[in-house]
Amino acid sequence: MASVISSARFRAAFFIERMNSTADPIWHPALEARHAPLVETLERLLPCMEVPLHLPWIDAILDLKRRRGALIMAHSYQSPEIFHGVADVTGDSLALAQAAAECDSRLIVLCGVHFMAESAKILAPDKTVLIPDPEAGCSLASSITAEDVRALRARHPGLPVVSYVNTSAAVKAESDICCTSANAVQVVEAMAAEFGVDRVIFLPDRYLGAWVAQQTGIDLVLWQGQCEVHETFTAQQARHTREQFDAKIVAHPECPPEVLAEADFVGSTSAMGQWLEKTRPARVALITECSMADNLRNRFPQVEFIKPCNLCPHMKRITLPAIHACLRELKHEVHVPEAVAARARMALERMLAVGRHDKV
Ligand code: 13P
Ligand code: SF4
InterPro entries, per this entry (predicted)? Predict the structure, then answer.
């Protein structure tokens, strides 16, 4: 119910933003024909009356993107009109970081949260990276500072520090290596072996950390950060969904351990897609951000996707009007001081060398 209410709130905000803008692109009949395949896709994923409202923005963004020579990247938690409508590169935080490092474009618009845009800038320092809303934060990233990491190191001398990418550039700069949920297990194992230790500092997500400790058998020093979206799921919700809908339960490792214990599969956002590819269940509940199911629904039309899901208020700050304004005015450029970026880059590049290890 909470996600239905917040979904309505976000949609209302979208329409109010539209009404207040004087530079709104306007719907005209030719748009339907110009974007016919996209209209078909969006009508499968969204209430059909919303599609004509999105189409003028999508058309205007695609035009601006072409003229600016920009590349638009969108995380899997972005709404379908962004994910399917305007993005050139889509995926999890690891895929976006890799794409930023490898792409040819000089201008990247990152539709995701701030730490993702920072990672892109760190890995592609000569490119201009814009974020449509600089206030798009993350409860994990804001749970820890660089000073906290230095204090942890002082308390546990000799232990390697593994930081989830959901951290600020300053925290990455204090870390030995980064990880995402797609490679956290392998990164922790690699660090324990390289440092010759049986304890590793893992931050800031205590739930992801607890899951990694369980998977690896390695003792982790944890930070008490949590994702405000995943921490609210309950084991009772998962059980109820399984029993009422006869659905498979797939959960992100940022969920509390008692939720993960109810899941048929635990994995990163990219691993969720791979698991569906392999398993093809009749019904599934993705215990994660709501747009994940919306975006996967297009790939798996035979699978029925069931709530519960929660909206990430930070991800949902990114809207089509915000992307349009960011591209039109070339605003909200992401800057990372080079002294910080150089050290954070080492931690990120070390992670990229470990690569992706989704286990399905
Ligand atoms: P991924 O690393 O799977 O993209 O997830 C990022 C995130 O913010 C999950 O809440
Ligand atoms: Fe951060 Fe959670 Fe939102 Fe992911 S879903 S960006 S971890 S607040």
Answer: NadA, NadA_sf, Quinolinate_synth_type2
